[in-house]
Amino acid sequence: PFLRLLEAQLQDQRREHEEEVEALKNQVDAMQEELEKQQQAFLQTLQLSPEAQVEFGLQQEITRLTNENLDLKELLEKLEKNEKKLKKQLKIYMKKVQDFEASQVMVPAERRQHERNMQVAVQRKEKDFQGMLEYYKEDEPLLIRNLIT
């Protein structure tokens, strides 16, 4: 079983390596094609007059900068979209925190009022009769604390 596991891992690694090599070969081929295009463009510009070479160089630079600007604009739009999404999430979480804080503030006030009512009720019931006591399950720790004190 251990040897089979090792064989399977080795085959997986070999397959991943072959896929990686193939991807790198494709990348090299694409780069060679781009290099050939650039060399042809360069040879063509050498055949032009000096003024035409300057004009061609400026045109190439304008094209490069335009493409770069488009890429940056796309990135900016993506970041702005992400920012809106994060702001929306932040608002949702802020609202949840506020609701939670409000419930924490209200719960102790309600609990204190409920504690007073329970203490009064417990005292009355103890005076009136002895026997069973009705209470809410969430008030059990409070009742135990009051019984101990």
Care to describe what's here?
There is one protein chain. The chain is an all-alpha fold. Helix content is 90%, strand content 0%. This is MYO5B protein. Keywords: Coiled coil. Residues 3-103 form a coiled coil.
Note the topology:
Blueprint: H1 2-47, H2 50-128, H3 140-148
Keywords: Coiled coil
Protein name: MYO5B protein
Coiled coil: 3-103
List keywords for this structure.
single chain; 149 residues; mainly alpha; 3 helices; 0% strand; MYO5B protein
List SSEs in N-to-C order: HHH
- Helix amount, in percent? over 70%
Largest sheet: none
Q: What would you call the structural class?
A: mainly alpha
Report how far the terminal alpha carbons are from each other. 66 Å
> What is the average of the pLDDT values?
84
Give the number of helices. 3
Give the strand content: under 5%
The backbone outline, from C-alpha atoms, is elongated
Outline the low-pLDDT stretches. 120-126
Provide the gyration radius in Å: 38 Å
Question: What oligomeric state do these chains adopt?
Answer: single chain
How many beta-strand segments?
Answer: 0
Q: What would you say about this model in short?
A:
With 149 residues, this protein is mainly alpha-helical.
